Amino acid sequence: MRRTGLRLVFIAPFATQPKATTSARVRPLARALADRGHTVTVLVPPYDHPQEGGQTYQVGNARVEALAVDARISEASPWQALAQPLLAGQLVRRALALHPHVVHVFKPKAVSGLAQLLLWYGRPAAPLLTEGRPAPALVLDTDDWEGFGGWNEYETYPWWQKVACDWQERWGLEHAGAVTVASRTLEVQAWSHRVPPARVAYIPNGLAAEDFPGWREAHGAGTGRASDADGEAGAPLTGVPGPVATARVRYGLGAAPVLLLYTRFFEFSPERVLAVLERVRIAVPEVKLLVVGAGKYGQERRLQVLAHAAGLAGAVVLAGWQAPEALPGVLSTADVALFPADDNLANRAKCSVKLLQALWLGLAVVADRVGQSAEYVQDGISGLLSEPADPATMADLAVRLLRDPALARRLGAAGRRRAELDFNWPRLAVGAERAYAAALGSTS
């Protein structure tokens, strides 16, 4: 049953940039719930981007408050370990001052995980801080597996910090009135930690047009063609002004067919991408690989070096990170978007907003059949799925789409419809309401 008029407080895990959870998941869900009649306040601890500290603004009908953070205790600071409990305490005090029915904590890790711990063990004392009101119901959101087997494997944390992250993840799942999860794998992880299925809500990442101004106009711009007024593939791009043509000139793509790799490079190795590119180049010698994004450890530069050593100098074009307003034009230069992923717990648990963005732009997608990718992409309908650890299959599917632009456009159009209809935040917000009802029921 839908519960309306709830007072909700969201505790974000970090700033809106450079990481994406707060901007791509927390704020859009808050706005969608506010549009459904709830009062929603998002509390942000911007220790990783102190410039955001002290800001207060609206996202639709939801309110966002960023704590003021001393720049000396940023994410890279040696004082971070001491600062995080203080920030968690600030978050909890402000959350309780808003007298919420539900506090929704995003990520059981670091500051937000500590806030969850304080809220859980502080329940008996909550009435002292809330004018006699009972403690709010507590809901946890997980959008990655943070512990061992997950993001711990990608980070260079000291051993004690990895142990702490793993403990926070498992403790968090077991100490909440309900859990929201971004993938089916995380759903299973919650069940395995004794969270009853009725208290687990599957809420994959979605998109909202408000967060992507100008992206609708880019629809149909992929496969090297411009978009006409109806959003269908129109005249050849040559001579057509606009962001796609501009991006092609800027990155020296010319009239070459383009494979897109839009990534942070955590999901696969540069060697694997090179194996795909080498095979595609045999069939389509003029193809170029446009890399949008960058790896934390310079993996994109390693890919370029490997390509040069393999005789593919100039075949790999590094575009780096792009401003949001430039993304649709740059991404839409692609004929085919590749989303490789090794079959491991981290990749099965994650929920790629980048893949969803590519679908929303109407790009033809080839993704590995790993975790949430197989939820977003319906094989042969809204994209093509390849088997993980098989670069030959991914290459063959990419060649198929490069040689059959009509099929690429058909799959791209279906992918866009799926992204718009099935993965929009107003629809996904209903799952959060189910979680709140379960959490409130467990406290009544």
How is this structure best described in words?
The chain has an 8-stranded mixed beta sheet with strand order 3-4-2-1-5-6-7-8, sandwiched between helices. The chain has a 6-stranded parallel beta sheet with strand order 13-12-11-14-15-16, with helices on both faces. The chain starts with 6 loop residues before the first strand and ends with a helix. It has 16 helices and 16 strands. It has 2 domains: 7-206 and 424-443, Glycogen Phosphorylase B (Rossmann fold, 3-Layer(aba) Sandwich), CATH 3.40.50.2000; 210-422, Rossmann fold (3-Layer(aba) Sandwich), CATH 3.40.50. The longest helix is centred in the C-terminal third of the chain and has 19 residues, at 425-443. The protein is of the alpha/beta class and 444 residues long.
Helix content: 40-55%
- Structural class, by secondary structure, is alpha/beta
Biggest pleated sheet? 8 strands, mixed
Average pLDDT, rounded to a whole number, is: 89
Q: How many helix segments?
A: 16
CATH class of the largest domain: Alpha Beta
- Give the N-terminus to C-terminus distance in angstroms: 16 Å
Uncertain regions spanning at least 5 consecutive residues: 221-240
Strand content: 15-25%
Please write out the topology.
Blueprint: E1 7-11, H1 21-35, E2 39-44, E3 56-59, E4 62-66, H2 80-97, E5 102-106, H3 110-121, H4 126-129, E6 137-142, H5 159-174, E7 178-181, H6 184-192, E8 200-202, E9 225-227, E10 233-236, H7 243-250, E11 258-262, H8 270-283, E12 288-292, H9 299-309, E13 316-320, H10 327-331, E14 336-339, H11 345-349, H12 353-360, E15 365-368, H13 373-376, E16 384-386, H14 391-403, H15 405-422, H16 425-443
Parallel strand pairs: 1-2, 1-5, 2-4, 5-6, 6-7, 7-8, 11-12, 11-14, 12-13, 14-15, 15-16
Antiparallel strand pairs: 3-4, 9-10
